[in-house]
Amino acid sequence: MSMTSMGKKYLAGGTVLTGTGKTLEGEAVVLDGGKIARVGTDIPVPQGAEVFDLQGKIITPGLIDAHVHMGTFNEGFPEGFSDGNEKVEPLTPQLRVLDALYPDDTSFPDALAGGVTCVQSLPGSANVIGGQGMIVKTKPGVLEFMTVRAPSAMKAALGENPIRVYTAMKKAPNTRMGVAALMREAFVKAQNYKAKLEAAKAKKEAFDRDLGMEALLPVLDRTLTLRVHCHRVDDIQTAVRIAEEFDLDFTLEHCTEGHKIAPWLAGKKVRAAIGPTLATKSKIEVRNKTWDTPRILWENGVHFCIITDHPVVPIEHLSVYASLAVRAGLPAEEALKGVTLYAAEHLGIADRVGSIETGKDADIAVWDGEPLDSRSRVVKTFVNGELVYEA
Questions:
Q1: Which residue, 22, 34, 52, 179, is most buried by CB atoms nearer than 10 A?
Q2: Which pLDDT tens digit goes with each residue over 49-87?
Q3: Which string of b and e fits 59-74 if b means at least 16 CB within 10 Å?
Q4: Residue 228 C-alpha from the chain's centroid
Q5: Exposure of 342 by Cβ count < 10 A (0-12 exposed, 13-18 middle, 19+ buried)?
């Protein structure tokens, strides 16, 4: 997939949408050693740099999708070959996407063609607690070099999905009460495990390890974020309630009916990933989905980002997603942030990606028109300063 090395590159003459709200006309962006080295006017071409004349083009940060299932629900594979859900027990925190992600999933080159340079791939939502996700760059290759953070989060799910899976097996959970009870039970067990582990260490006694409980300890310690699948207002409120009970760092994933309780969510200072709004109303809990949700959350001061939930909506259409939010009234600048800077903040990696600023990773998309115009296309994509896609 590699097209050029990570050597110095000089991107000249384009309009730079930095992702921070600033627009820079006709300025240069210098990439060096996988990082953004300089941004501005009157920058001389560094010695040995490869020059890209981008007159008439628009330069943006590489897009970021904070919630996908790339590499586990692989496109073109039979359903039975997917690795995203372990549908045996409703509590499986010990599972890791890292052990299943397939770098040769066709979604990765598709992402590059759509200007998407970074994603968080998560377990599916069949289980109440489904396991650990990871953040990767979308240039396919050895996972060690793709990985930005692993684990990136613990995935959990409320609502219809775990109920449907386990009711069919004639085991809990069968109701929303059951889902919430199992989630609480898991964290209480993890608290007890932590206390016993600390006591055993203090006494220098042997202790039988439990990988599931070990995986939940960083969630209890707030060093690993709990990302909760929740569509309906009741599930959204349950997610907040449980997170507050156990003092967890958490995000709301999907938040489909969040527009109905936006002032309350603002008061709770939640972070929400909105989508996949472009998908069909495939189940009862998404019947009230609307493109107004990002706008209403933004108007109420709720931190949001926009997601495809790939493969529910193909990853290469993330920019189209953002454009449809603009059509519903979200300012274009905010929509672009929703798939760049805000997505990076949602993931806790805004120090590295999400905007065109000196010192950040050289993840760049170059467009032949306005990036939130569905007629525009990506003409070049850079990941870590390497040209990895060219139309």
A1: 179
A2: 999 999 999 999 999 999 999 999 998 888 778 999 999
A3: bbbbbbbbbbbbbbbb
A4: 13
A5: buried
DSSP strands (E only) in the chain: 9-12, 15-17, 23-25, 28-32, 35-40, 50-53, 58-61, 63-68, 116-121, 129-137, 147-157, 225-230, 250-254, 271-274, 303-306, 364-367, 378-383, 386-390
The per-residue pLDDT for range 252-272, each reduced to its tens digit, is 999 999 999 999 999 999 999
Structural domains of the chain, count: 2
Gap between the Cα atoms of 361 and 382, Å rounded: 10
Contacts of 42 (CB under 8 A, 6+ apart): none
276 and 327 in a common domain: yes
Dihedral angle computed from the Cα positions of residues 286, 288, 294 and 296, in that order, rounded to the nearest 10 degrees: -150
Q: Three-state DSSP class for 52?
A: strand
Beta strand 23-25 pairing with 15-17: antiparallel
| HSE-CB of 96 using CA atoms within 13 angstroms | 13
- Residue 211: give the domain boundaries: 63-353
Listed residue (153, 334, 295) closest to 229, CA to CA: 153
| CA 391 from centre of chain | 25
- Confidence band, pLDDT 50/70/90 cuts, at residue 344: very high
| 186: number of Cβ within 10 Å | 22
On whether both 42 and 147 belong to a single domain, the answer is no
The Cα–Cα gap between 194 and 320 comes to 45
- Report how far apart, in Å, the C-alpha atoms of 27 and of each of 35, 39, 47, 109, 242 are: 17, 7, 18, 29, 48
Same domain, 105 and 116: yes
**Can you read off the two tokens belonging to residue 186?**
């898991």
Residues 94 and 155 grouped into a single domain: yes
Largest CA distance in the chain: 69
d(CA 229, CA 224): 16
